Each structure stands twice: as C-alpha cells, then as structure tokens.
Description:
Blueprint: H1 2-22, H2 38-71, H3 88-120, E1 129-136, E2 139-144, E3 149-153, H4 158-161, E4 173-176, E5 180-187, E6 192-196, E7 201-205, E8 211-216, E9 221-227, E10 239-245, H5 247-269, H6 276-290, H7 292-295, H8 319-328, H9 343-355, H10 367-373
Parallel strand pairs: 1-5, 4-10
Antiparallel strand pairs: 1-2, 2-3, 5-8, 6-7, 6-9, 9-10
Helix pairs in contact: 2-3, 6-9, 9-10
Amino acid sequence: MCFKRIYTLKPLLLILGMLLLGTAHAEFGVNFPEPAGELAQDIYDVHMLTMQVATFLLIIVFSIVLYSIYFHRKSRGYPADQNFHNTWFGHWSWVIVPVMVLGVDFTIAHNANNVLKTVWEVPHEKEIMDVKVTGHQWWWEFDYLDSGVKVESRALTKEQSGDLYLRDVDNRLVLPTGKKIRFLHTSGDVNHAFWVPELAFKKDAIPGYVTETWIELDREGVFRGQCAELCGTWHSRMPIVVEAVSGDKFNQWVDEQNAVKVAAAAEAASDKAWSKEELMAKGEELFNTKCAACHQINGTGLPPAFPPLKGSPIAKGPIEGHLHIVLKGKEGTAMQSWSSLNDLEIASIITYERNAWGNDTGDVIQPADVKNAR
C-alpha cells in the first residue's frame, strides 16, 4: 500500500515542482537580452517563435508521458501491450511524427531564412559608417575608418572592475544610434569572434581575411559581449563593451579623441629630454595595459610562449636589440611589432622594462633614440 502511494505521488510532485520553478524563472536570466536594433529584434523574434513551438511540443509530449506513466503502470495491473507494433499507429507513426517535426522546422526556417538574408546582405550606402574590428591575443582594436579614431580595448583587472570582472574594459566601443554601421572583422594572430548579443550577431575574426556584418542601433545603452572563439590562454579576458550614444554625443566623442591624439603626437614630437622618473611612470602605465597580458605585470611572463622580461637578456642586453624587437617584433612568435606606438610611448616602455623588477640597468631611452631606430 505504501508503494502505491509513492507511485501516485511522484507525478503530482513532479508537476508541483515544475510550477514552482516556473515562478522563479526570471531570476536565472536564461533568455536573450533585450535587442538594441531592428536586426537584433528579428533574431530575437525567431528565437521566441522557436521556443514557443518547442514549449508547445514539450507540453504535449510530457502530457502523454505522464498520462502513460500514471494510468499504465504495473501497480494498477495494466498488462503490457505486446502487439502495439502491429496496430495502425505502430505502422505509420515513424512516418507521421517525422512529417510533423519537419512541418514545424519549415515553419521556423522560413522566418529564419529571411533574417539570415538581412544579416548577410550588408548595405553599401554612402552614409554607412565603417568600423574595422581586429582581434588580438588578448585585446580588441577598433578603427573608425571615417574619422581616423583608433581605440584599443583591454579587460580591466579584478581590482579595477569589481563585480564586472571579465566583463569590463578600459576603452569602450562607442557607436551612434540611428545610423547604419558596417563592421569589417579580421585578426592579427589567431581566430577570434566578435559577439555582443544585443547587436544581433557573432562573427569570426580570421587572420588574413576580412568579413562583414552590420547593425543599426535604435536605443542608447551599454551592451556587453565577449570573444566567442577559443583563442588561447587568456581567451576569457577579451570582453567587449559597446556604448550606444546619440549622434551628437558621438560626434563630440570623436572630436575629443582626435584632440587627445593630436596632443599626444605633439608631445611625442617635442625635443624635450625626459627624465628617468617621467619615463618610468609613463612606461609602467603603458606596459600594464599593452604588454602585461603576455609578460605579466611582475615581468615573469608565461613561459614558454611568453618569456619573462625580469632578468631577460633582451631587457638587460644591448639597447639596440631591445629597440629592434619592440619595433619589428619577432617572426614565428606571438611578439608582434609595436611600431604603431609613437616614439615617446616606445621610449617609456623600454625604459621601464630595463629598470623594473630588479633589472636596474639605469638606461634612459629618449624619443629621439626611437626615432633614429625606426
């Protein structure tokens, strides 16, 4: 008698548990985030249609299963049907069920195909804004091709980001609303993938190739994504933060970025003789943002891929060799050329590397030294 009660209660407890979980589903945040553009909304609508169809089918299947478990259980004395396969349904179910499933698939596929056409057919209009997205190990580079602005975006440390650890960056990708934006994706080393759910797409960034996607943002806000392609040791430290602003705010931001770039170029081109303390302060800041991902803040590196700079023959050897490897990179390794940095930035980094972590060479590299070495 006790076993009969247990078998009777199990389906009821299962149903009760499902109802209780249903009241708390919002806390899990398992659905897509709210779209930030028409294209993202179209993808979201296809997703919701798929979930609605799947939920409807799930209810039907579970209803049949629960009914069968309850009414056809052995404790009720129900005999097993040994001839089900000889019935009409037994003969034709293997045809009827796949046909019904394919019907559902085709219903969803029609809408999905229309959305895919919109995703892949990138507009080529004169007014469209082009942003080149380059993935690096392990940071993002955003080039605004129409305005000449370049942004390097790197993950903040745990101390800097707090609750947004691995979800926040030092420089955001700022984009205007109400304007078509074309992304040109590529990579400087290995495969990466640019993915921000509110922007509607995930696109691989492949070395040697340029691929396109596009969006048109319809609301302001901050949207977070990440690299969605396993790209190496610090793959998790490649978050993406997009800040959507109005057209006027975007134009103001562009003017500010250009003003900073002009001021930095003027500072680097000056004939000022920088003191060791000034170069060390600048070099530490630059090293921690541009070099520490591979060589570590304490200079110990990640051997064997990324050798230590602490006590290394490069950092303590001839200055000419140190300048050469920073300006030209090293073929066959992850060490890329940093010639895109201005003379003052490179001079600061090298001065810092040659005097930090106990290297203590006492060397001071001036921007003029870098200029002569280029």
